[in-house]
Amino acid sequence: MDQSEDTLKSDFKIHTTSSNSSLWREGENGQYLPSSRFHERYSIIQDEKDKDKKTEKDAEPSLIKRNQKELHSQRLQPKQIAYHKKHKYVVLEKDNNVQALIDMGENADKTKLPNTWECSKYECDESDANGEAKSDNKKININPQELQFQISIEAICEVEKHISSTKNTVQITDNVSSLLQPMKGLYQSEFLAIENERTLDESKTFAEENIQDGQKLFLYGINGNAMINSGHLKFFLRFSDFKQDSWSVGASSWDALLIKCSKRFQFMGIGIFERYQDPPIEFTLKYKYEIKEEDGTVVIKSEEFKETINYSTSDVNQLHFFKYQLTSFRNGIKVDAGQTLNFMQTLSFTKCYYSESGNAYETYTNPDMGIFQIKTSPNSSNSTELNRGIIPGFLYKLG
Questions:
Q1: 192 close to 219: Cβ distance less than 8 angstroms
Q2: What are the start and end residues of every segment in region (Disordered) (predicted)?
Q3: How many angstroms separate the CA atoms of 247 and 382, rounded?
């Protein structure tokens, strides 16, 4: 066997059965990137008859590299999902070199090949009836050297207020559970993976969940035998920002919202904006609620409840609110599918942050999209309404 062919086989493990193979090299961060294209194996060794005439000098110089790690190859195929820094997740449609070779004919000048793949944007969390990746109709030509099949993730893990951070490199086609399993074994806990207030489905892949390269994921753990299942606690976010200004509140100022769900749920708690430019203090949350059927019949009209709340700055997120679970209703306020919950509250301090981004709540990423309807309550005497106010979201469980 010719030395050049030996070198290529040992150093690169080239796929020899396709005209659209790719060679991959390991980068500094451990992820594999395409380093060269092979249109025909015989562009280096033309055929078995001529291979004895070839020398190492005849092989492409960039492919002859000694004393390096063995490189791995991955064949690019149509319908394959890849990650691109600019276009994010894409679906490979076809190798543009194939058509170019056909168009050029027998005397093709391979130096003029486009060396690109036609791709389309991947519709995350979607697949067709055959389980294949769905894509939109817009076509993008991408150099395969720019494609990634691994991404980096920073996992911030919290278990009973113990916080740790790790850097992880994951395959985009791996399930989210591949990130959670080591944590489960280490802490003997069950975990939720949260991305921007959205609970990830651990049975789905990172691509399906649209996780970006370099993104932070928050892993929340529960020690002991407590299991997280389909009825776990979730948060519905109705605001996307906050105002650098204050909203007046007080013991007699009622802020309220109407919440309707197409599924049965338990209302577990609320988001509370922190005091405006003031340190945390102990305060009182007073609330009451009303549940109506779709025909307007009142099912429940509650009494007033009072709960004393202590919070710290570490409880507050980047939107200046924290999540509070109601202590008077450990199992939540039960609301059947189609019923409307009218939740009314007051806060005993004087000023807090607020937002005016509620009109677009249906477009914000939440654990359960499309099942909640938010409306202005007729009992809101302190100006909180659909678009603006001080109730940034609520805690809930389905079922």
A1: yes
A2: 1-75
A3: 9
Place of tokens 């490199």: 169
pLDDT digits (tens, 9 = 90+) for 384-398: 999 999 999 999 999
More confident residue, 335 or 197: 335
Give residue 69's pLDDT: 31
Query: Are 329 and 307 within 8 A, CB to CB?
Result: no
pTM above 0.85, yes or no: no
Residues 56 and 115 in one domain: yes
Last residue of a domain, one of 196, 223, 250: 223
229 within a domain of the structure (yes/no): no
- Assign 9 a pLDDT band (cuts: 50, 70, 90): very low
Residue type at 375 in one-letter notation: K
| Full domain range(s) for residue 200 | 150-223
Rg (CA), the chain: 29
Cβ-based neighbour number of residue 4 at 10 Å: 20
Pairing state between β 150-159 and 215-223: parallel
Which residues touch 327 (CB under 8 Å, ≥6 apart)?
A: 307
